[in-house]
Design a protein that fits this description.
Helices cover 45% and strands 14% of the residues. The protein is an alpha/beta fold. It has a 7-stranded parallel β-sheet, with helices on both faces. α1 packs across α8. The N and C termini lie far apart (38 Å).
């Protein structure tokens, strides 16, 4: 047993069929947690869950598809997790949307609403659904995957950045409200990570150069380089941290 042991814990991770969410699920399972894989499409969820179960040699993962834009889907995700594992100890809000790449002056209203609904309101929903049982046990860890975009302006992803800034405040406020019940709420703020979600940024040579030329590590990150922070925040190692944002960006924001 170590400070990072998650044995007996149950973690729900949204957007976990690929990228950062998948890496977090795999690492949490490696540290003993039972994990719930969730994204919109059933087949990728089942594939990731099966891979984790094979690697761990036990039923460490289940797949419960859900669209974060649907409150009913998220409630079903919570209900199915409780039915299968009996509780939820850890919630990782990782799924997000960014349908518009370009100036905020050109973003349609429906795209703006989608970003705010999926990146902020959906997080509020699933947290609200899982808090009662955490309060009853006086124990819980909530992790919101935000972004360094929430700390900066951008010519290409301004609305997304606004939503990620809101996630920082969501974590802070929830931390204040729920700290007396021993529930910790924190954000992880990745820089540019090589995921399909961020492909418009790292697949563009000009943008990639701009993102890395002044970064101390001179590169972008990999999904697995974010997962360790999630394990830390969910485990005993992170017991005294709440309302904070861990920036993992290769040094971009300090250069």
């Amino acid at each position: 047993m170590t400070m990072f042991d998650l044995s007996g814990k149950v973690a729900v991770i949204t957007g976990s069929s690929r990228g950062i969410g998948r890496a977090i699920a795999e690492r949490m399972a490696e540290h003993g947690a039972n994990v719930v894989i969730s994204s919109r499409k059933p087949a990728p969820c089942e594939e990731v869950a099966a891979g984790i179960n094979k690697a761990r040699g036990r039923k460490a993962a289940i797949a419960v598809p859900a669209s974060i834009s649907s409150k009913d889907d998220l409630q079903n995700l919570v209900n199915e997790t409780n039915r299968e594992f009996g509780k939820i100890d850890i919630v990782v809000c990782n799924a997000a949307s960014n349908p518009h790449f370009g100036s905020m002056s050109t973003i349609p209203d429906d795209a703006f609403r989608k970003v705010m609904d999926n990146n902020v309101l959906a997080n509020h929903w699933i947290i609200q659904m899982t808090l009662p049982q955490m309060i009853a046990r006086k124990d819980g860890a909530i992790i919101i995957v935000s972004s360094i975009g929430g700390l900066r302006g951008s010519k290409e992803i301004g609305t997304y950045n606004i939503s990620k800034a809101a996630d920082f405040q969501l974590a802070r406020n929830l931390a204040v409200e729920n700290g007396p019940n021993n529930i910790r709420v924190n954000c992880i703020a990745p820089g540019l990570i090589k995921t399909d979600f961020a492909k418009a940024l790292w697949d563009n040579p000009e943008i990639l150069k701009r993102s890395t030329q002044n970064a101390p590590l001179r590169r972008i990150g990999e999904p697995d380089e974010i997962a360790g922070a999630a394990v830390f925040l969910a485990s005993k190692a992170g017991n005294f941290m709440t309302g904070q944002a861990i920036v993992i960006d290769g040094g971009v924001t300090i250069a």
